[in-house]
Amino acid sequence: MESKRKITSFFWALFFLGILLQLATSESLPFSAALLYTLSVLATFRLYFHYASRPATQRFIGRLPTLGLLLLLLILCGTLTLVLAAQGYIWAKALLPTAVAQELFHDSLPNIFGLFIISGFVCCLHYLFEKYKESFTREKELEMLKRQALEMEMHLLRNQLSPHFTFNVLNNLHFLIHKDKNEALQLLATYSKLLRYYAYESRKKTIALRQEVAFLQAYFELQLKQREADLQVVFDATPADDTFCISPFLLATFVENAFKHVLPNTAGKYYVRHSQSLTPDGQLTFELRNTCREASPLGEYNGLGLKHVQESLALAYPGCHRLDLRQEDGLFCVQLEVKLSPC
Questions:
Q1: What is the pLDDT of residue 205?
Q2: Is the dihedral of CA 313, 315, 321, 323 positive or negative?
């Protein structure tokens, strides 16, 4: 808003000086007359801008066809020209000697044509400015609606655990209760951490990176306990504190997707490997690899969750992130580099 006010003030100051210099250089006009007429011209155009910028006026103009718009433009230019010419006549009669005023009136046709050109320029400039402002406002509204829709979708994703994942945990608990109660209690404690994270942290716009890493570690531990023994799970992350913040579930979505689609590849490998590092200035590097079948198309792994996290990255970290998703040699690889902000 402040920058817009400065630009508007600069435009009117430039417009005022341009007209004043043109009139002041005329030998037949004293500086006082040139100044007063310039002020009256400026007031006329400011008044025109005021009424032409009203929402009702813009709605009326927006409903006009092209021919009607051109006709309206000619009428406005003609009206402004007559008003400015009348002002010039009044100021000349009031401030100039009769001989000088009559000389100006005698050569009035070029002056009137010049006023018409200036009026046309100002009318066209105002119309273009209003169209730009309308387009900019619409673009901002669409961006806001898109952001709100994405936040709602991400909120829904964050607040619902995968039914299949929950069912597996409950099955494992039922089995372990009869086999090893201590291990069952450990599994339940880990699952409680995940539920607490889903229930409370998902409501926040950003959380400390330490909390996201702790969630990932608990998720890996839970998967390690309930998965087959031949699945290799590697979690490697540098210690994180509360210095930098991140959008909740930004990294967790990739991890959930990896465990959902992990399969032994043709080379006999079967693993999910995670690595993560953070520089002192907040540059986060996140890498995740899981084995998969070579014949599976890449689109199979780009589900709704990955689509939303890509849109979330574009909105939350515009111009300061790089995401690479690729499938090669029986591996699905995720590499994310993102610049985090301090908490």
A1: 79
A2: positive
